[in-house]
Amino acid sequence: MNLDIGGSSKGFLLPNSERRGSSRFPLREEVKYRVLHARGREITGVGQTLNIGSGGILFTTEEELPVGRLLEISVNWPARLNGTCPLKFVATGRIVRSENRRAAIKIERYEFRTRGMAMTSTG
Prior knowledge:
- This protein is an all-beta fold and 123 residues long.
- The protein has a single domain, classed as Thrombin, subunit H (Beta Barrel), CATH 2.40.10.220.
- 0% of the residues lie in helices and 53% in strands.
- The chain contains no helices and eight strands.
- It has a six-stranded antiparallel β-barrel with strand order 3-4-5-8-7-6.
- The protein starts with a strand and ends in a 9-residue tail after the last strand.
């Protein structure tokens, strides 16, 4: 699988000092999320990633999310499969922090999926 990011203006910067066991990268992409097994009402929303690492994701939210609950998140990925097919990063994780319209999850499982290509009209 070739995950070519060629031509992308989004750079990845390593932090100077990091307390976590894994590095975080300042990736800014659209996310869609939903709390799994929410009691009472479905909790879904959209936001933007603030940073991402192998162990977790920090992202903006529309409301405070219930800490400790499982969440599924879908991130538009900047790389393309074989340079042409858009991808999304789909992860499930536990909400470890939620405040000030931001939430952090600890990733428990993830996968890359292809996402539909937008139709463009010509003429």
